[in-house]
Design a protein that fits this description.
211 residues; alpha+beta
Amino acid sequence: MVSVEILEEDPITIRVLLKDVEGTYANAIRRFAISEVPCMAIDDVVILENSSVVYDELVAHRLGLMPLRTDLQRYRLREVCDCNSPLGCNKCTVLLVLDSEAIDRIKTVYSGEVVSEDPFVRPISDSIPIVDLAPGQKIKLEAYAKLGRGKEHAKWQPSTVSILKETGKKDEFLLEIESVGSLPAREIFLKATELLNERLSNFATFSGGLK
């Protein structure tokens, strides 16, 4: 039976010692932590007004890469949501708005000005720069965030660093996961393990049906 020992932990980083486990399984947990555990990210942006020098597409790109706090208990992936809508609903999609203007001096618009319809799903930091506005310039937009996976796009990677090290002992590995802030590091590890075991269980069931 696999043995798990948490060596160090804080909201962003977790170091886990895995014992009595094959290297392929340990590495699969690492990969799932990067590519399979879902998190929220802005995917669609409607620019209502943009008089800055930054193109609409670049503004949308910056917003998409801005990490958002994520609640996996309240939201579901759009492809499995019962709304069956490409536009989503309040079970799978969150609306965020930005409305900012520079009056008499140059203004840097930061993520703290982005307002979410869900107070929990918001940028992980208020100090992420989005665009600079000259006096008289304005930006107004609506952004729609949804859950996604890192295998689809880097903006949906909940962890930036996931390292697997051999300890020198047989069937023992050290796993380090560093979260971008969307999810606590512990939740990323637990969800990665859950998804991997679910995938293996489904494969076993499928393989059994082929006999």
